[in-house]
């Protein structure tokens, strides 16, 4: 009896320890210790002079979120008896920290920002409500990358100072350290410039003038827009707030394209058309007046922003407009520029020269590579990784922000059930699996990758709750992939940690997208019943569900998890769920199909079969369905792990496969694919995996009772970076993943 009790208590202790260590991003080293510490109002925060600001932050955080008012004292040498010690250790690595929690108190050591990072790890270990008992632990931690960023587009919809501050607070909690502030674009100019008052008097009120019929219809926005701008005092307030949280704010002033708001305020800046045609003008004319305007604007921006970088945009410039501009044509002749791309390069290099004269460095989107890269430019690679790879090989600093992984204006799951967004689905798993260091770079070139950044564009995002829904939990994946060691990445552990963040989200009033229900997947099966148990990781969540295809809503009957489903299955069944947690307006919808088919072994002579699948490769501009009778560019045998190299141009690299799955023992099997962009796979000519279903957005599997024999297998998929290194097909029996060498033949 005593032994059983001890074992039971040990299990409780172990589960308690595991529950405490849900720190995101994953620390470099973390070790549980014996005992725990109870944080109460009697504790004193002791700091030295350097760490006082961080001490004030922690003091205010505990007061605001837990109504726990701790005394703060500054010491030349902090006494050992002080409960919470924040100690500057003057190390060379200002990002590395150590956190130790014992039964006698809490000790965080580091230098500068690193003590703040240690406090963020401490905050994540705190329960969402009293009592605030912390498991004893030793942590030694440091980031992998210097640049750990998120962007914020305030041009398409304006966000207030307080909303930007909250955005910064959430970044700080997860050790993200760079806010890329997109301040100007076609839909609005958001920063006060004293020399050009019309930029904010007119350019910041685009939606107002659109309603007056004096500006074009804002066709990219989901509503009438949200006007506003930041005064210089507003900017200073935000910068001070960010600095106290060790976040650098990178301002972006778009040029030469995406400049319609500036041109609306000052039409003489716009690209003139010698043909007299009237059309939308978003391009700046490369005139001396334009360059003087930009230099004056940037001078005022530089006076506000102390950081070393200024972002000048450079993306999606409609350079063809310059070919009709008398000013641009004259410039091409004067400077011996061959084409409009070289005009772009001239434009960017001239701005770079001005920034260098002000002791600033320039960042631009990867289009600034066109026509020749400015000598000291840093490249943000967004159109995939190619621009970043090219820049790194040229020994230019690079921030990886590629589509689709780092674009959070994309929906997070089934587009029909999610808020409207741009681009295909980008679930958190896809973000987490992204690796910022491309395999194409050698060690020297890889050193030029500064880090990665998640981007958000707000054409379809009109308010803060919607913004938070799109950014979280995906931003947590950015935090871990930029901070934690590559070898420490573990997607299952990350999911468990992410699930445990939701009580903190509730504490912070953060409208994060809820996690999906476990075990809700698209299934192809030959069973005559659908049997499943729906589980959910958040305590107190309720679900409304239907099996008739109709999507439940808030008026439908809610039940508690877990939910057991056991119903007859004759053809196709649609499971629709509507899950709520804490607040009625916080919900997640899911819809999956359970499809029933019959599968029969093929008649084949197994004595003539060889391991692997036959493949045909097609490099083409066409979609697979339009290939027709085209001949493949290559053929061969696919064995795992396969190593198809994606084509380097804009063509598609389609891979067609044919062969058999060999079932040795009759039983229940599960067929899945590891590809992020799903293949089209047929078993016995019946579709079991489909390319229009992203693996993580809508997981798919075939759950089949198969007799012994060979089943025909065919299909196709795009060979690209997203799918590289993943398994095309995976067979599982009784929870055991089978070796592909034993079941794939041709």
From TrEMBL:
EC class (word): hydrolase
Keyword Cell division in record: no
Domain named Glycoside hydrolase family 20 catalytic: residues: 145-485
Pfam family, one: Glyco_hydro_20b
Keyword field contains Signal: yes
UniProt entry keywords in alphabetical sequence: Glycosidase, Hydrolase, Signal
Beta-hexosaminidase bacterial type N-terminal domain segment(s): 22-142
UniProt EC number: 3.2.1.52
Name of the featured protein: beta-N-acetylhexosaminidase
Source organism (scientific name): Mucilaginibacter rigui
Species lineage: Bacteria, Pseudomonadati, Bacteroidota, Sphingobacteriia, Sphingobacteriales
């Amino acid at each position: 009896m005593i032994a059983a009790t001890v074992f039971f208590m040990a299990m409780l202790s172990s589960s308690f320890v595991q529950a405490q260590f849900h720190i995101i991003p994953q620390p470099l080293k973390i070790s549980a210790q014996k005992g725990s510490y109870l944080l109460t109002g009697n504790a004193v925060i002791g700091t030295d002079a350097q760490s006082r600001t961080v001490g004030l932050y922690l003091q205010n955080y505990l007061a605001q979120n837990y109504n726990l008012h701790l005394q703060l004292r500054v010491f030349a040498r902090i006494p050992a008896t002080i409960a919470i010690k924040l100690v500057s250790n003057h190390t060379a690595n200002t990002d590395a920290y150590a956190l130790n929690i014992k039964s006698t108190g809490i000790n965080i050591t580091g230098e500068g920002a690193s003590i703040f990072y240690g406090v963020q790890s401490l905050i994540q270990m705190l329960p969402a409500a009293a009592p605030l008992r912390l498991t004893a632990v030793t942590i030694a931690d440091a980031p992998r990358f210097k640049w750990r960023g998120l962007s914020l587009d305030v041009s398409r919809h304006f966000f207030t100072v307080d909303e930007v501050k909250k955005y910064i607070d959430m970044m700080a909690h997860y050790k993200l350290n760079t806010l890329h502030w997109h301040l100007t674009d076609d839909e609005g100019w958001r920063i006060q410039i004293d020399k050009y008052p019309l930029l904010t008097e007119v350019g910041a009120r685009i939606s107002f003038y659109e309603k007056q019929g004096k500006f074009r219809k804002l066709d990219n926005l989901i509503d009438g827009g949200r006007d506003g701008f930041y005064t210089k005092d507003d900017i200073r307030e935000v910068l001070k707030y960010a600095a106290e949280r060790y976040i650098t704010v990178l301002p972006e002033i778009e040029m030469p394209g995406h400049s319609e708001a500036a041109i609306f305020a000052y039409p003489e800046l716009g690209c003139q058309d010698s043909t007299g045609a009237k059309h939308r003008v978003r391009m700046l004319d490369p005139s001396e007046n334009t360059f003087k305007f930009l230099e004056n604007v940037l001078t005022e921006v530089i006076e506000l922003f102390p950081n070393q970088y200024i972002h000048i945009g450079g993306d999606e410039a409609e350079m063809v407009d310059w070919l009709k501009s008398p000013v641009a044509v004259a410039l091409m002749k004067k400077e011996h520029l061959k084409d409009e791309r070289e005009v772009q390069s001239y434009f960017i290099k001239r701005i770079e020269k001005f920034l260098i004269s002000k002791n600033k460095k320039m960042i631009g989107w990867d289009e600034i590579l066109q026509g020749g890269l400015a000598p000291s430019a840093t490249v943000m690679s967004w159109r995939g990784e190619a621009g970043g790879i090219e820049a790194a090989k040229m020994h230019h600093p690079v921030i990886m922000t590629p589509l689709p992984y780092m674009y959070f204006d994309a929906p997070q799951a089934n587009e029909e059930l999610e808020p409207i967004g741009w681009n295909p689905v980008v679930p958190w798993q896809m973000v987490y699996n992204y690796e910022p260091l491309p395999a194409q770079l050698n060690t020297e070139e890889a050193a030029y990758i500064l880090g990665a950044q998640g981007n958000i564009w707000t054409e379809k995002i009109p308010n803060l709750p919607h913004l938070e829904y799109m950014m979280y939990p995906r931003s947590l994946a950015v935090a871990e992939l930029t901070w934690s060691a590559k070898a420490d990445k573990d997607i299952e552990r990350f999911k468990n940690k992410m699930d445990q963040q939701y009580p903190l989200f509730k504490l912070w009033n953060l409208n994060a997208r809820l996690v999906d229900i476990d075990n809700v997947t698209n299934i192809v099966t030959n069973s005559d019943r659908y049997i499943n148990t729906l589980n959910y990781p958040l305590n107190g969540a309720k679900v409304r569900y239907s099996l008739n295809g109709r999507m439940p809503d808030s008026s439908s009957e809610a039940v508690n998890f877990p939910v057991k489903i056991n119903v007859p299955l004759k053809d196709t069944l649609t499971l629709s769920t509507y899950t709520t947690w804490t607040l009625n307006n916080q919900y997640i919808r899911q819809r999956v199909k359970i499809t029933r088919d019959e599968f029969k072994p093929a008649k084949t002579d197994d004595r003539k079969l060889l391991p692997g699948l036959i493949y045909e490769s097609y490099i083409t501009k066409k979609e697979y369905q339009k290939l027709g009778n085209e001949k493949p560019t290559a053929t061969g045998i696919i064995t795992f792990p396969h190593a198809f190299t994606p084509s380097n141009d804009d063509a598609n690299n389609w891979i067609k496969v044919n062969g058999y799955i060999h079932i040795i023992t009759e039983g229940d099997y599960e067929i899945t694919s590891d590809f992020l962009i799903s293949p089209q796979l047929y078993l016995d000519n019946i579709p079991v995996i489909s390319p229009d279903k992203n693996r993580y957005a809508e997981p798919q599997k075939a759950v089949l009772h198969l007799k012994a024999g060979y089943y025909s297998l065919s299909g196709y998929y795009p060979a690209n970076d997203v799918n590289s290194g993943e398994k095309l097909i995976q067979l599982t029996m009784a929870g055991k993943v089978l070796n592909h060498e034993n079941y794939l033949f041709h």
